[in-house]
């Protein structure tokens, strides 16, 4: 109110003061605030009516307040009220009353009053003079300040403009200097580019000449090799005796030591790293330079006695191991003694001195007992990987491991029958339990649910758990694992038929599962796969072989696992084309690389049409899928250009389908055509001419194949490493002679049931196939036992029998 009255005219202020309007307002406001009537409006009307009747002469601020409600002291004075309404403003003008004719009348409130005419005279007060002087003084100051500010801004503007010009001038000067340097650099660059162009053309010419020379030499070598092959095959066909002749392509007559003479020590060591212990020992005896290379420390930080246990005359004994361990113990990190059954305390004592050992494999060591293991782990305290499978350790060994092996992360106790639940309790209570990530308890049938509960309570950091061949494994065991071991991402439970959907639902709730392997479980259903597909979005590897209750709904459930790489549904006979279609339309189609549909007898041509959507599929197996036709099914597989390995055993494939398969996909490396009875020499010839990079080929029980097919195979596929000819009864010694003359990289050969082959074939193999490691000759009546025993000296793994041909071979 005070702020609003300051700007009003003095006449208005005088009117308010003369009619006591502020006093009326004060009395009404006080009455309302103190009495608090139920009807404020009616209260105001009654009081105004009272004023109108009685007049305003006796007006007081508390006249509307009852006597018992009046305060003893007056808080607001008249001076305060005048201040509120700004009635004491000095700007009000003094009035001088001049008596005139008195007019009688009646006011609003009914009182009689006499009219008085007043005249105004202005009398400036000293305060008004001071105010006027201050205003004038302030105007002068504002005018001077404004003029000074304009002058200052003008000078500042000129200064900024000058600075801007100077900056532009400095920038222009810098640009001129840079332009001069740039021109100099351009000239130099043009000169250097010219020199480089001349050098490039010279080097390019030299390169093309060199490439031409290399290509010409290689072409000459290939032409010479092909000529020698043709001559070799022609001599074989003419029946000439080539038994005593040197097999072509073996050696170039140069006996110079290129390894130690031309290669550096690093490359030589890299070459020697592919040799085993026995070969390194033999190389050390060749010459001094080879001895230096063979004794390089990096070659002896990894020892694998399992590879040479059958090559040594007396096997791996304490004398051999102690001698080698004493020489390489300072830098030995990885050691494998798998299957070395002749080791005793002397070896384990020497082993305990290898303080830097981190990886130790004592699997199938029959001489290992609790005392020997205690001696080893006491000395080797930084072991990270420990394999004790197929040994006779007891609970005492597990107690020793928990006490001394504080850093072990990998532990295999597979098929160790003598430890019990107490051993797992020791293991879970040890210091290594919080670091253990991998545990293999396959075949440990003595473990009960209590043992698994103890294990899960301590080993909560487990990530990989292997429980294969565990027929007594039930839901109670796995539920205890799933409740505490929530970080498991890889689980293998092959051969556990008692597990139900409840186990896999609990495992799926952990959401970390990436690899799952199940086999031979007839209780698991689509409900488990739905839970896994919903929760385990990181799933990469799924192996569900021989789970008969699974249907197409399982494939539909896992179709949205966008990171799925391997899917094995072998022997799941209820899968149809619909399930494969759901898998192909899901988000896993872009990532899937391996698919196994072996013995899925309801899968047909429509599934092959949908399989084409797996653009990154590398491995495919559709063995014994009888509803896949040759034209509508097999030919479509040729459109999978990323496919490298294919297994169509037992399918309806003949020469036409095999030819089409090789025509559209010549990148195949591994092909299995077992029991494709309609394939003949012509079909195999067309296929091998198109797929010359075949490395592994299975032609078992293709009974129409003859020596002509093997001739074309040997001529076209020179890098063949594995060949299966079991059940090919028309194969003769000539085929083996073809293979031994050309396929020098062959290391696996199966000629079981080839009844025409004789001892002469083994002679060809010894001369031509120097890298042969696995040879199977079952039911070969033409091969004598003496020849087979002689062949064992050259082939590490040889299987031989001269028994009668089994009925399932189908020989008449």
UniProtKB/TrEMBL annotation:
<dbReference type="InterPro" id="IPR057207">
    <property type="entry name" value="FBXL15_LRR"/>
</dbReference>
<dbReference type="Pfam" id="PF25372">
    <property type="entry name" value="DUF7885"/>
</dbReference>
<dbReference type="GO" id="GO:0019005">
    <property type="term" value="C:SCF ubiquitin ligase complex"/>
</dbReference>
<dbReference type="Pfam" id="PF13516">
    <property type="entry name" value="LRR_6"/>
</dbReference>
<dbReference type="InterPro" id="IPR001611">
    <property type="entry name" value="Leu-rich_rpt"/>
</dbReference>
<dbReference type="InterPro" id="IPR032675">
    <property type="entry name" value="LRR_dom_sf"/>
</dbReference>
<feature type="domain" description="F-box">
    <location>
        <begin position="257"/>
        <end position="303"/>
    </location>
</feature>
<dbReference type="Pfam" id="PF12937">
    <property type="entry name" value="F-box-like"/>
</dbReference>
<dbReference type="GO" id="GO:0031146">
    <property type="term" value="P:SCF-dependent proteasomal ubiquitin-dependent protein catabolic process"/>
</dbReference>
<dbReference type="InterPro" id="IPR006553">
    <property type="entry name" value="Leu-rich_rpt_Cys-con_subtyp"/>
</dbReference>
<dbReference type="InterPro" id="IPR001810">
    <property type="entry name" value="F-box_dom"/>
</dbReference>
<protein>
    <recommendedName>
        <fullName>F-box domain-containing protein</fullName>
    </recommendedName>
</protein>
């Amino acid at each position: 109110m005070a702020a609003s009255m300051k700007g009003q005219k003095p006449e208005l202020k005088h009117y308010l003061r003369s009619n006591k309007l502020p006093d009326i307002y004060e009395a009404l406001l006080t009455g309302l605030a103190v009495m608090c009537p139920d009807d404020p409006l009616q209260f105001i009307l009654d009081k105004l009516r009272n004023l109108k009747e009685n007049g305003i002469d006796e007006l007081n601020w508390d006249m509307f307040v009852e006597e018992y409600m009046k305060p003893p002291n007056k808080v607001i004075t008249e001076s305060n009220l005048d201040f509120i309404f700004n009635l004491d403003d000095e700007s009000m003008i003094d009035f001088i009353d001049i008596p005139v004719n008195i007019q009688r009348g009646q006011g609003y409130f009914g009182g009689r009053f006499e009219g008085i005419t007043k005249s105004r005279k202005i009398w400036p007060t000293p305060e008004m003079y001071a105010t006027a002087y201050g205003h004038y003084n302030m105007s002068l100051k504002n005018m001077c300040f404004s003029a000074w500010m304009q002058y200052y801004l003008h000078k500042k503007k000129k200064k900024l403009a000058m600075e801007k010009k100077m900056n532009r001038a400095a920038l222009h000067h810098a640009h001129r200097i840079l332009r001069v340097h740039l021109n100099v650099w351009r000239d130099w660059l043009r000169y250097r580019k010219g020199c480089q162009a001349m050098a490039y053309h010279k080097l390019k010419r030299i390169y093309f000449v060199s490439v031409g020379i290399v290509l010409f030499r290689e072409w000459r070598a290939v032409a010479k090799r092909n000529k020698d092959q043709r001559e070799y095959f022609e001599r074989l066909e003419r029946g000439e005796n080539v038994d005593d002749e040197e097999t072509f392509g073996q050696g170039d007559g140069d006996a110079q030591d290129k390894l130690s003479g031309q290669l550096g020590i690093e490359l030589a060591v890299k070459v020697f790293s592919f040799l085993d212990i026995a070969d390194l020992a033999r190389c050390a005896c060749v010459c001094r330079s080879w001895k230096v290379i063979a004794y390089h420390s990096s070659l002896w930080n990894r020892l694998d006695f399992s590879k040479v246990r059958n090559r040594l005359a007396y096997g791996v004994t304490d004398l051999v191991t102690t001698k080698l361990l004493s020489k390489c113990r300072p830098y030995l990190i990885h050691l494998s003694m798998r299957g070395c059954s002749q080791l005793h305390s002397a070896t384990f004592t020497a082993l305990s001195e290898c303080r830097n050992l981190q990886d130790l494999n004592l699997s199938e060591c029959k001489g290992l007992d609790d005392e020997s293991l205690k001696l080893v782990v006491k000395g080797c305290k930084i072991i990270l990987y420990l394999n004790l499978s197929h040994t006779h350790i007891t609970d005492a060994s597990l107690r020793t491991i928990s006490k001394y092996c504080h850093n072990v992360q990998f532990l295999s106790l597979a098929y160790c029958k003598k430890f019990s639940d107490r051993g797992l309790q020791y293991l879970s209570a040890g210091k290594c339990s919080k670091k253990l990530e991998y545990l293999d308890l396959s075949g440990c049938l003595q473990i009960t649910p209590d043992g698994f509960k103890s294990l899960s309570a301590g080993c909560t950091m487990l990530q990989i758990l292997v429980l294969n061949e565990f027929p007594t494994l039930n839901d109670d065991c796995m539920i205890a694992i799933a409740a505490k071991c929530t970080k498991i991402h890889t689980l293998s439970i092959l051969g556990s038929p008692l597990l139900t959907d409840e186990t896999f639902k609990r495992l799926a709730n952990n959401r970390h599962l990436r690899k799952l392997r199940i086999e031979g479980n007839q209780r698991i259903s689509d409900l488990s796969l739905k839970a896994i597909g919903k929760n385990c979005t990181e799933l990469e590897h799924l192996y569900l072989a021989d789970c008969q209750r699974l249907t197409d709904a399982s494939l539909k459930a896992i179709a949205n696992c966008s990171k799925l790489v391997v899917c094995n549904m072998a022997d799941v006979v209820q899968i149809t084309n619909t399930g494969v279609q759901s898998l192909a339309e899901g988000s896993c189609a872009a990532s899937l690389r391996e698919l196994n549909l072996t013995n899925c007898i309801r899968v047909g041509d429509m599934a092959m049409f949908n399989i084409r959507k797996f653009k990154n599929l590398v491995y495919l197996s559709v063995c014994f899928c009888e509803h896949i036709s040759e034209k509508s099914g097999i030919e479509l597989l040729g459109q999978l250009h990323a496919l490298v390995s294919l297994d169509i055993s037992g399918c309806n494939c003949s020469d036409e389908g095999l030819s089409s398969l090789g025509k559209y996909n010549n990148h195949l490396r591994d092909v299995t055509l077992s029991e494709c009875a309609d394939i003949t020499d012509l079909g195999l010839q067309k296929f091998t001419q198109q797929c010359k990079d075949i490395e592994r080929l299975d032609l078992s029980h293709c009974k129409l194949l003859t020596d002509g097919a093997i001739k074309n195979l040997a001529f076209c596929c020179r890098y063949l490493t594995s060949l299966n000819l079991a059940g090919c009864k028309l194969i003769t010694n000539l085929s083996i002679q073809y293979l031994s003359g050309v396929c020098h990289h062959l290391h696996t050969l199966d000629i079981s049931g080839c009844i025409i082959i004789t001892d002469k074939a083994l002679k060809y193999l010894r001369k031509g196939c120097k890298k042969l490691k696995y040879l199977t000759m079952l039911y070969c009546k033409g091969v004598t036992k003496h020849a087979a025993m002689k062949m064992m000296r050259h082939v590490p793994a040889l299987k031989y029998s001269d028994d009668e041909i089994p009925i399932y071979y189908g020989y008449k």
